[in-house]
C-alpha cells in the first residue's frame, strides 16, 4: 500500500504532465508558480495582518509541496492551509453588521469561526478531491459581501478596485475549471498549463482584495480614520500595486 507521503498518492492530478521537466518535481510549472500566491500579502503591522500574512505564506509553501509531490499529505496541507487562511480573514474582518443574530461580539464570532473551521478540517478528510470545490464556493460569498458593501458606497475608487478584483477572479476560476474539466482538450493542443495560470491570477485577485477588505474594516471599526484607496506608483501607470492609505481627519480643537 503506498504511503500517504509518496509521489502521486493524491486524489487529484492536474493537467500538466508529471515529471516531464524534472525527476523530482512532479508538475514543474505548477510548482514554479504556486508560491506566487503568498506574494499577494500585505505589510505585517498588526496581529491580524501578521497572522494573515503567515497563513498565506503557509498556503504558498504547502501548494508548492503539493505540486512537487502530488502526495495525499500535500493535497490535504494545501487545502487545509487555504481553509485556515479564509478562517483567519473571516474571524478578523467579517463586518459585525452581518454577524448572525445570536452572536453578540467579535470574541463570540472568533469562537464560531474556530469551531466551524475545526469541524470542516475533520470533514475534509472524507473526500479531499471535493474540498477544493467547496473552497472555491467561499469566493461566491466574498463576492456577495462585496456587492452588499458597494451598494452603500459612492467612492468610485472602491468600485473600480472591486471591479478589477472580480475580473482577475473570473479569469482565475475559469483557468482552474478549464484545467479540471477540459484537460483532454488542452493536452490535445499540447498546452496543459491552465492550473499554473490560476496561481498567478488568484494572486492578482488577492492583491486587489486585501486593500478592499482593509478599507471596509476601517470604515466600520475605526470611523475616525478616512481610508483612501490608491495605486503605487501612480493611478495612470499600466502596472500598479493597489494600497489603502489611512488619513486621520483634522481635529477641530
Ligand atoms: C487584509 C487581507 C484580507 C485578505 C482576505 C482574503 C482571504 C484569502 C484567503 C485565502 C486565499 C488563498 C488562496 C490561495 C490558493 C493557493 C493554493 C491553490 O491554488 N491550491 C490549489 C491546488 O494547488 C487548489 O486546487 C485550490 C483550491 C481552491 C482555493 C479557493 C480559494 C478561494 C479564495 C478566494 C479569493 C478571493 C478573491 C476575490 C474573490 C471575489
Ligand atoms: Ca499532472
Ligand atoms: Zn495549484
From TrEMBL:
Residues that span the membrane, as ranges: 56-74, 80-97, 109-126, 132-147, 159-177, 197-218
Positions bound to Ca(2+): 13-14, 16, 18, 27
GO CC list: endoplasmic reticulum; membrane
Catalytic reaction list: an N-acylsphing-4-enine + H2O = sphing-4-enine + a fatty acid; an N-acylsphinganine + H2O = sphinganine + a fatty acid; N-(9Z-octadecenoyl)-sphing-4-enine + H2O = sphing-4-enine + (9Z)-octadecenoate
EC number(s) reported in the record: 3.5.1.-
Keyword set includes Zinc: yes
Membrane topology: Multi-pass membrane protein
Compartments it resides in: Membrane
GO molecular function: metal ion binding; N-acylsphingosine amidohydrolase activity
Entry superkingdom: Eukaryota
Protein residues bound to Zn(2+): 67, 195, 199
Gene Ontology biological process terms, A to Z: ceramide catabolic process; sphingosine biosynthetic process
Keyword DNA-binding: no
Keywords per UniProt: Calcium, Hydrolase, Lipid metabolism, Membrane, Metal-binding, Sphingolipid metabolism, Transmembrane, Transmembrane helix, Zinc
CC cofactor: Zn(2+)
Pathway: Lipid metabolism; sphingolipid metabolism; Sphingolipid metabolism
Cited function: Hydrolyzes the sphingolipid ceramide into sphingosine and free fatty acid.
PANTHER family: ALKALINE CERAMIDASE, ALKALINE CERAMIDASE 1
Similarity section: Belongs to the alkaline ceramidase family.
Protein name in UniProt: Alkaline ceramidase
Organism: Cariama cristata (Red-legged seriema)
Amino acid at each position: 500500500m503506498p504511503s500517504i507521503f509518496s509521489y502521486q498518492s493524491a486524489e487529484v492530478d492536474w493537467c500538466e504532465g508529471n515529471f516531464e521537466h524534472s525527476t523530482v518535481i512532479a508538475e514543474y510549472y505548477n510548482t514554479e508558480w504556486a508560491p506566487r500566491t503568498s506574494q499577494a500579502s500585505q505589510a505585517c503591522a498588526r496581529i491580524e495582518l501578521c497572522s494573515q500574512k503567515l497563513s498565506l505564506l503557509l498556503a504558498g509553501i504547502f501548494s508548492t509541496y503539493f505540486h512537487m509531490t502530488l502526495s495525499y499529505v500535500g493535497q490535504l496541507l494545501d487545502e487545509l492551509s487555504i481553509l485556515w487562511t479564509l478562517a483567519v480573514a473571516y474571524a478578523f474582518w467579517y463586518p459585525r453588521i452581518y454577524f448572525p443574530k445570536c452572536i453578540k461580539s467579535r470574541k463570540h464570532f472568533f469562537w464560531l469561526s474556530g469551531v466551524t473551521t475545526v469541524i470542516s478540517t475533520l470533514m475534509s478528510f472524507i473526500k479531499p478531491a471535493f474540498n477544493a470545490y467547496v473552497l472555491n464556493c467561499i469566493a461566491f460569498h466574498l463576492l456577495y459581501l462585496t456587492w452588499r458593501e458597494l451598494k452603500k458606497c459612492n467612492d468610485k475608487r472602491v468600485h473600480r478596485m472591486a471591479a478589477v478584483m472580480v475580473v482577475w477572479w473570473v479569469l482565475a476560476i475559469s483557468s482552474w475549471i478549464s484545467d479540471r474539466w477540459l484537460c483532454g482538450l488542452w493536452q490535445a493542443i499540447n498546452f496543459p498549463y491552465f492550473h499554473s495560470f490560476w496561481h498567478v491570477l488568484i494572486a492578482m485577485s488577492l492583491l486587489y482584495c486585501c486593500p478592499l477588505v482593509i478599507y471596509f474594516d476601517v470604515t466600520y471599526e475605526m470611523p475616525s480614520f478616512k481610508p483612501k484607496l490608491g495605486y503605487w506608483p501612480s493611478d495612470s501607470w499600466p502596472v500598479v500595486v493597489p494600497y489603502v492609505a489611512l488619513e486621520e481627519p483634522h481635529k477641530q480643537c
